[in-house]
Amino acid sequence: MKVTRKRAQRERRHRRVRRKIFGTPERPRLSVYRSNVHTYAQLIDDIAGHTLAAADSREVGEAESRVEAARKVGELIASRAREAGIERAVFDRGGYKYHGRVAALAEGARAGGLKF
Q: Helix (H, G, I), strand (E, B), or coil: what is residue 45?
């Protein structure tokens, strides 16, 4: 029961944040999803409803920790964004706290050249 409530609270926070955040083709939404093991990131154009670029921790290979893997995912999504001609994005933390893996992904994306 507790897990269900925790997930519902995260989804509620995500809906609240999503009311304010919207991605466009010029400035897509950088959406973050965190599972127990992996971290996923997508650049989404909400107008067309398309994913412009995606990356996840399964692609980055071995990492010392999940936080380090998330940082590498951020760098990978930033490089894919540059390839797609995207320089700026809107960060969507997905209802998660801006801490740990979510913050590491954001820092990695910024280090890779993505601005938000």
A: strand
The DSSP secondary structure of 58-109, one letter per residue, reads TSS---SSHHHHHHHHHHHHHHHHHHTT--B-EEE-TTS-SSTHHHHHHHHH
Length of the chain: 116
Radius of gyration from C-alpha coordinates of the chain: 14
Is it true that domain 2-111 has CATH number 3.90.70.10? Answer: no
Neighbours of 12 (CB within 10 A): 11
Q: Are 92 and 10 in contact (CB under 8 A)?
A: no
Q: Which tens digit of pLDDT belongs to each residue from 29-67?
A: 999 999 999 999 999 999 999 999 999 999 998 899 999
